[in-house]
Amino acid sequence: MTRICQTFLLLFVLNGISKDARATGTFPAWTHTRGDLVLKWDLATDKAALSHRTKGSVMWQGSLLPSFWYENAKKQKKYSKAVVQSAAADGEKLTVQLQWPGLGKGRLRVENTATGWRFSELTAEWAAFIPKIIEMYLGASMVVNGANVQPTWDRPFLPDWQSFGYCVPGAKAGTVQSYFRSWDFGHTTIALGNFGPSMGTPYGAAFPRPVLFAGMGSDDGWLTVGAGSVPEGAMSLKIQSTRGCLQFLYREDLWRAPNGKTRLWKDLARFSIDTTARGSFAQYYASFPEVAKNASGGALRRQTVSIWNTWGMWRLKKYPIRPIADFMEQMHNEVMVLDDPWESSQGSGVPDLKRFPDFYNDISYIREKGVEVGVWETIGWIKDTAVCGLGKRDLILDKNGKPCMANWNFDPQGDAYYCMDFSSERTRKFLWDRTVRIMKDIRPQVIKLDFGYGLPSPDMGSPRDPAWRGERHTFALMQHIVKAAKSVDPDVVIMGYGISPLWVPLTDLVSLDDQGDLWFDLHRGHQEWSVWASLLAGYGVAISGSSCYDWALDDGILLNSVILGSPGAVLPSEISAQERVPPQWLNRRLAVNLWHRRTAKWEPRWYNSHTGNMQGPPQLRCWGRTEEGALTALVLREPEYAGQTIENITWTGKWALISQDNASISNPNAVAVIPFAAGQISFPIQNKPKQILRRGIAGEAPADRWEWRDGRLSIAVSEEEFRNTAGFLVKQ
Question: What InterPro entries does its record include (predicted)?
């Protein structure tokens, strides 16, 4: 669809949504620009728009003042949207005095920064009664004049954000999709935080939740709206008949509202713009420079590790630990993570000595192989509450006072788990003691924290203390576990799944999870996930590319891990009891385990890859990794792009180049050259190599099929050589 058609469609969309009572008077114009993009907010009418300065196109428009759907003292459900009473600008800061008809008054503070707008503070002072907030909205308005089409919606208001398309990283998983036209959603709730399945969102496993932001726009420009602090409500992008808004679900009509006649929201929302969706996401991320510290206040771990997860075998009910440890030794993996079900019951933190009678001896055996140990742990689930010393008052309860249960997909008849309430002092003590015991007994180098997205939504149950509700609940649970673990070993690596910049202080390593949920389009889905994971690269958070379950599909996924940095896997360590994994599959894993980048802070270089738009999803072809301006890793794909010149390189087949120091791949002390198919490569390298070693599962030997002439190194690999070669280490 052409841009003219996109713009026409946007302007032609339903006009049945009318503004609430409008403010009168003159107010300062509030504008943010980036290149030819202009984001402007008319405070008098509460109408904002993102437009293109030269093309005249409008990519997004809608309202921004907050509104509430609430229950009053008579248990009636009412709606009130803020109206501007006055506004004063002081340089790049704006103070807006508000009134919510029927509720009270308040104040909104807005900042205009280099990365966009920031709703830095919202206060509300209730008048006659304390409302029970059911939902809070950004981007919703009353329907007063009627609409041409009435969507299925039981509220007297509707979302009013209009754009040609939406982009939410990993909004849908099997198969993965992040870009949607406005009419693709229908009536949809896309959970942006930790409440995916329980909010009715299409199941998407762990990665990349929570994101806590969403993009809106077209190919002329994008607006990203995201949380500035961890919300006390469950945050979603709500779509009704093409139009969107942000919804924060509270359900204080079911759960006790906070005491007092004032409410305060710090850093409610941030707004950023750019010519692409990922570019606007990157501007949103850039507004969080302060998240370079972990939960204990120290610097984040700066080195990546190669991780092998036992889930590849344990999902098949094959539980022996020592054969996997032998495999790890062969593959030169650094950490073996013991996944579910290593515990006596889920969440206990105690090993299952019936399933693993030699558990502690097996741990010693792993370490004798030169491999460190990691453990999997749930964030909020608990199976056997009595054994763990927890009772009803320590759990999330439903509206009937019965403990809520949850599972990964919220199947009503599936095996389910109780959910701990962080409000309980006994719950907090249990989590701390459990974590400290694990750290002292097992001494893990990695703790993999899972199922933060699998807790009940506010419609089902909620913490007793309002301070820990909404997205804050999972954050508080995870933060507590992280602090306990790092109190024993500050260097323990905390593995999580969410890509929100607000989760960076809690996370040393983000994993793309296993790719079971990418279903039948693994390679395209993993490429898309890699694009979104790279948003974290500037924070020094290590990124694990993980794997699928099928060795035959591994190479396409592993290519992306070369750039992401940290190779992880949930592959089986055998095909069957009678069949070992063929060497041609092992070799690529071995090469990346040996030679992956150890640093965690980097920037992507896209070359002929693209990050997606309204014409198609993200697609990775050739792309690279730069560190302080130096190109330290590069992936070259084939066949459709063979013969192109990327960094003055010619090639056939598929290749990865990884610098073994912090210098560029064209001038390192050593560079790894890894074939992912038979072919040849010729690239500039300043000096003639002193030595080139060919490495494989069977060992290493001097390479013979290479030539250096006039500052270029050429290496060729036949089909037979490819099956038996992990890669080449070029030393200068």
Answer: Aldolase_TIM (IPR013785), Alpha-glycosidase_related (IPR050985), GH (IPR017853)
